[in-house]
Amino acid sequence: MQIAGHDNSDPMALMIDVSQTKTGDPLEFSITVREGDSETHHSVTMAESTYQKLTSGAVPPEQCIEGAFKFLLEREPKESILSRFDVTVISNYFPDFESQLSRYL
To answer: How far apart are CA 103 and CA 22, in angstroms?
Structure first.
């Protein structure tokens, strides 16, 4: 996935891979963020109610998580993102997260 300010033809382009690792409630995801030879790994949970609140079910859960990472990566380096967290904690660090997320979906 291309991130704003990053060119897909650039070998240093930022890539976000999201895979759902557990269904049910909460959903669990494994995320790998790659940039050049460097990558970080993250585990994220998201309750069904949070998913509905953030997207009204308009996009798949994986796309919601990808959008959350796009949001985060515009604000901090991948190495600063927690390795394990619930998507709701993003608002603790960035109060505009919920209002801005739709821009990243």
So the answer is: 26
Give dist(CA 49, CA 46) in Å, integer.
8
Cα–Cα–Cα angle for 1, 88, 4, nearest 5°?
25
Counted domains in the chain: 1
Cα–Cα distance for residue pair 84/45, rounded to 1 Å: 8
Structural contact between residues 75 and 94, judged by C-beta atoms closer than 8 angstroms: yes
Give tens-digit pLDDT for 35-88.
989 999 999 999 999 999 999 999 999 999 999 999 999 999 999 999 999 999
In a domain, 100, yes or no: yes
